[in-house]
Structures are given as C-alpha cells and as structure tokens.
Write a structure and sequence with these properties.
Layout lengths: L1 H21 L12 H22 L12 H32 L7 H30 L13
Helix pairs in contact: 1-3, 2-3, 2-4, 3-4
Length: about 150
C-alpha cells in the first residue's frame, strides 16, 4: 500500500512540474477521459465482492459451481494491475489539479478543465482502491489450527 501511495505521489509531482511549465500547450481535459477508470473500478469492486463471498463460503475448487483457483489468480493479477494503474493515473491528475484548481477563477481553460481533472483524479484513486480490494480478496485464507497443507 505504501508503494502505491509513493508511486502516486511521485507521479503527481512529475505531472505538476510538467503542467506548471506546459499548461498553455496542453489540450482540454474532458470528463469522458475518466469513464474507463470508473468502469474498471466498478468491475474490480464487484469482482472483489464476488470472490470474497465465494472464499467465505468455501466455494473454491474445480467444480463448475465453484470459483476456479486459476480464475482467482487471474483476478488477483487484474487487481494488482488496476491498483498500480489507478495510483499512477490518479497521481498524474492530482498533479494537473495542483495547477488547475487554484486558477479556476482566473483562467477560462482551468475552469473548463476542472470537471475532467477531478473526475479523472477521483477515478484513478477509486480504481486503485478497488484493485487493492480485489487483490486482497483473492489471497489464500490462512489455515485453521491443526490443519496442514500438503
């Protein structure tokens, strides 16, 4: 978790430096940029909820009615990728927001960019949180006392 926050913070700093220097050359940031982030965040959240309920009920195995362990491993990789992607993209838009937010009253372009920047920054943060939720839901539960693996 600390690595995700560090990556997001580093990306925010780099994006802030570039935005402060090159904002005049940037194109507008529409709200539609964040749609894919939000869709993937919702998918990861629901997949994480479904996996957690299956693991909690002990329905993990090779039967068709059970959650296949390989599918759980794939979902775990998706969760990890979503968490890192969300951290980097969310951090980038937080960095852009550090320039846009204080200038909303002064620049017409900043007030036009604000909804897209906020939606994308929050979408990235939501994607990162949903990815962590999915990834942690796919982890193998600890063994019961007295039970051995093998």
């Amino acid at each position: 978790m600390a690595m995700l926050i560090g990556a997001g913070g580093f990306t925010a700093a780099v994006a802030a430096i570039f935005t402060w220097r090159f904002y005049g050359s940037m194109t507008t940031i529409p709200v539609t940029v964040s749609i894919s982030l939000w869709i993937l965040a919702v998918f990861c959240f629901f997949a994480g909820h479904r996996v957690r309920s299956r693991v909690g009920e002990g329905e993990v195995g090779q039967d068709r009615s059970q959650l296949n362990p390989v599918t759980a491993a794939y979902l775990m990789m998706l969760g990890k990728a979503a968490a890192w992607t969300g951290a980097v993209i969310g951090g980038a838009y937080v960095g852009v927001g550090s320039f846009v937010l204080p200038r909303v009253g002064d620049l017409i372009a900043a007030s036009a960019d604000l909804p897209g920047v906020l939606a994308s920054a929050l979408g990235g943060i939501a994607l990162s949180a949903a990815g962590v939720y999915l990834e942690r839901g796919c982890q193998v539960p600890p063994t019961q006392s007295g039970e051995t693996i093998g």
